[in-house]
């Protein structure tokens, strides 16, 4: 596969995931939060498992251990997002979740004690300023939904770091599919404990669940795994940084969410901070002419 085709697949996945906030919000009109997670990831696991059933003829204990861990983290992430969408907009959720790209190097710096680059300091400052403009309202309070989405972004950054470590030891496609199954399983357990599990009772609810399960989760995760073999992590991160733009676009087109001018400036700062954090910049200072050559 050529890199251009792989990057087009990643762009399609980005569009899928940008629409997911809208469909989660629509799904919550007829289902409980845990019920929605159970159906979304349970159906995604069944679809992806049916397509790649031959991959599961052999499974190791190590694969199952990583799958359970990542499935639980995925469950907590989407619990935070689905509860968060009750009190924030799809646009805000998209931009705040995109902070994952900024949090990954920060967590790596804290855990691995690596020296942080200037671009991450700048991108983090831009992102924090953007969050303040996007979410803070007089008298300087933040809605619980915005806070939950930021927590989800932190957890997703942790998820990415663990996946990067786990895929060096186990099959990436098996891991990607099994984590969906365990995320759905945890959703079902919590739905049985705190809700009354049921199927959607409207066409809108079914459309939301099927799009979330098949398009956003099953195909989305499969396309991501396949495409990332043929392009660089930097290009992948840069394309994924477009997710909040699509989230805002879907929110505007289908539920008529309109940002204030302050919110738009904040969203732009968050987006630019995410793009900066995924861009390679190196400079060399030459003693002869004291010039600076930038390479992107």
From TrEMBL:
It comes from the Bacteria. Its main location: membrane. The chain crosses the membrane at residues 7-28, 34-52, 64-85, 91-111, 118-138, 144-166, 173-194, 206-226, 238-255, 261-279. The keyword Membrane applies. SUPFAM superfamilies: Multidrug resistance efflux transporter EmrE. Pfam families: EamA (PF00892). Residues 5-135, 144-278 form the EamA domain. It is a multi-pass membrane protein. The keyword Transmembrane applies. Keywords: Cell membrane, Membrane, Transmembrane, Transmembrane helix. GO terms for cellular component: plasma membrane. It is found in: Cell membrane. Belongs to the EamA transporter family. This is DMT family transporter. It comes from Heyndrickxia sporothermodurans.
């Amino acid at each position: 596969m050529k890199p251009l085709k792989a990057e087009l697949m990643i762009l399609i996945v980005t569009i899928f995931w940008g629409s997911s906030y809208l469909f989660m919000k629509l799904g919550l009109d007829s289902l409980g939060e845990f019920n929605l997670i159970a159906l979304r990831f349970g159906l995604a696991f069944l679809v992806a498992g049916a397509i790649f059933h031959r991959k599961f003829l052999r499974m190791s204990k190590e694969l199952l251990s990583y799958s359970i861990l990542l499935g639980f983290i995925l469950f907590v992430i989407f619990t935070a997002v689905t509860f968060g969408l009750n009190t924030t907009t799809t646009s805000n959720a998209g931009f705040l979740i995109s902070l994952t790209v900024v949090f990954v190097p920060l967590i790596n710096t804290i855990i691995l004690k690596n020296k942080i680059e200037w671009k991450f300091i700048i991108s983090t400052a831009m992102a924090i300023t953007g969050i303040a403009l996007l979410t803070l309202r007089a008298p300087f309070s933040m809605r619980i939904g915005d806070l939950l989405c930021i927590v989800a972004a932190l957890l997703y950054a942790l998820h990415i770091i663990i996946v990067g470590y786990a895929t060096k030891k186990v099959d990436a496609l098996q891991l990607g599919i099994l984590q969906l199954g365990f995320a759905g399983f945890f959703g079902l357990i919590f739905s049985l404990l705190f809700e009354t599990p049921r199927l959607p009772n409207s066409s809108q609810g079914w459309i939301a669940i099927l799009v979330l399960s098949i398009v956003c989760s099953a195909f989305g995760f499969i396309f991501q795994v396949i495409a990332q073999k043929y392009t660089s992590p930097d290009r992948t991160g840069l394309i994924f940084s477009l997710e909040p733009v699509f989230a805002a676009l879907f929110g505007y087109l289908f539920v008529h969410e309109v940002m204030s001018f302050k919110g738009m400036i904040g969203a732009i700062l968050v987006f630019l901070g995410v793009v900066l954090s995924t861009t390679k910049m190196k400079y060399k200072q030459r003693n002869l002419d004291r010039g600076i050559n930038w390479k992107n």
